[in-house]
Amino acid sequence: MRFVGCWDVVRRDVVRRGEKVTHRRGRGQRSALPRGEKRTLRVLASEAKRPLADVVAGRLGLAIVDARTLCDAGSVWLDGRRQRDASRALRVGQRVVVHLPAAPPNPASLADRRDARGGGFELAWRDAQLAVVVKPAGLPSIPPREGGPSLAGGLRGRFGDAATLLHRLDREASGLLLVSLGDPESRERLARQVREHRLERGYLAIATGILAAGEADDERLIDQPIAARRGQAVVAKGPGSKAARTRIRVLARGAERSLLAVELDTGRLHQIRAHLAHLGHPLLGDARYGGPEAPRLALHAHRLGVAHPSTGERLEIHSPLPAALRQLLPRAYGERR
Is 15 a residue whose pLDDT tops 80? Predict the structure, then answer.
């Protein structure tokens, strides 16, 4: 498991660009940032002695093979000199400049985006087969029992009855969701990726308290079964419980809160919320699981990776952290700038 793109997506200087969509050819290859740019990095203490390609890949959200290719192509400069050695060990404070190649534009037109906002959601990506949309906090993914608006209803209103929402987010959370727009065969290919846990989903979360470091590089695996009881997830073993695995990486600590990158090996009801509450670190704004008051639930699905159902091309889409959550970051995030 490798955490991708989470560090730069929350940064203010990337928020504007985060709404762009990038894609590249090659199954299984990741590309997390808009292209056609020059990116400048300073080597952090935690990155000292690590290979150049590893740091470039981690900071820019690239597959390691892409980072090595950039080095080999002469697109990476170290302290003012072109550096083609991808394995070069780095020192604290060194300046790394990466020249990223250009990429095709987002096929979702401006008109598409305006229409989507009228339906209560934002459109991050769209072609004839699929769409990736950004659900706002407070909007349920599917129609609630009591009636009212939902993302699924807005999708049908915008794209017609063929629009099928393939997975969900909690009402209180925000972020990226995959929608099928094509024929039944295309829809089944996308749905199979969801069922087989091949759909890559990355989250940003702000938890209460200072999380301890994991075994390596602040990464940690939470492997605790979850049972659903009366609409709430409970960490418990025994009848009715299902295996649940959550991987977290601490991006920053401070002000009695921790900024986390989160990835799921499984997809259970309220999995992230229940696992973090079980550790004694509920999310900000998560009153249901014991979290303190906040403007909203501090959970955002910021990254989604999917293989295109027609071409097999790997698409990776990003959504920046919403403004309401960025306001909670200054002290927690500032310690790692």
Answer: no
